[in-house]
Write a structure and sequence with these properties.
Blueprint (H helix, E strand, L loop, with lengths): L5 E8 L4 H9 L6 E3 L2 E8 L2 E8 L4 E7 H11 L3 E3 L10 E2 L1 H12 L6 E3 L8 E4 L8 E7 L2 E8 L3 E4 L8 E3 L2
Antiparallel strand pairs: 1-5, 1-6, 1-7, 2-5, 3-4, 8-12, 9-10, 9-13, 10-11, 11-12
Length: 174
C-alpha cells in the first residue's frame, strides 16, 4: 500500500459526532476531503418548530486521504474514528473513486427517492444509466419493492438504491 496515495475510506464514529467531525474536516489547517450526507428534518423542540440537519446514515462517515493522514485523524480530531477493514487483508477498506462518486451522486439526489439498503441483495446484471438524473451511474440491476432499481454497493459498508429507472435508460455493462 502506497502511503501517499489517496483513497476513500469508510469509518464508524460515535453517535451524534458527525457534525463536529464535519466542522473539524473543514478547518483551514486540516481541510480533509470528506462526505457525510445530511438531510434536513423538521422537529418540535421546546415547543417550537425547528429545522435540523441529521445524518442520512448515522455513525458513518467517508474520508478521502492517504493512509498516514487517515491514521492520524482520530488523534488530531479527538474523536473516535474506526475505519472499516477488509476482513481478508486486515487493511482499511478502500472505496474506488467511481463507486464513491456514484454513491455521493445518488445520495445527493435523495429527495428524488433513493433509498438506503443495509443488507446484501441478490446480484443482478451490471448496468450503466445512460439517461435521466442518474446518467453515468454504474451498479447492479435489482428489484426492490417491485421496481427495477440500480444499486451502488460499497462492499462491506452499505448499498444504495436509486428510484425506479425505465429499462430504456439502462445499458448492460459487459
Amino acid at each position: 500500500m502506497n502511503g501517499d496515495e489517496q483513497h476513500w475510506y469508510a469509518a464508524r464514529v460515535k453517535y451524534r459526532t458527525e457534525k463536529k467531525l464535519k466542522t473539524f474536516f473543514l478547518r483551514e489547517e486540516v481541510n480533509i476531503q470528506h462526505f457525510i450526507p445530511f438531510r434536513t428534518v423538521g422537529r418540535v423542540r421546546a415547543g417550537q418548530w425547528r429545522k435540523e440537519e441529521e445524518p442520512v446514515i448515522p455513525c458513518l462517515i467517508f474520508v478521502r486521504a492517504d493512509y498516514t493522514t487517515a491514521l492520524s485523524l482520530p488523534d488530531q480530531s479527538g474523536f473516535t474514528i474506526n475505519y472499516l477493514r477488509n476482513f481478508e487483508t486486515g487493511k482499511f477498506r478502500e472505496i474506488p473513486d467511481k463507486q464513491m462518486q456514484d454513491f455521493m451522486m445518488v445520495l445527493n439526489l435523495e429527495e428524488k427517492g433513493s433509498i438506503i439498503i443495509d443488507h446484501e441483495l441478490k446480484r443482478g446484471d451490471k448496468v450503466r444509466v445512460i439517461r435521466g438524473v442518474f446518467a453515468g451511474i454504474e451498479g447492479e440491476l435489482v428489484r426492490v419493492q417491485g421496481h427495477k432499481r440500480v444499486v451502488i454497493r460499497l462492499e462491506g459498508v452499505c448499498s444504495l438504491a436509486t428510484t425506479y429507472i425505465p429499462p430504456d435508460f439502462l445499458e448492460k455493462i459487459k
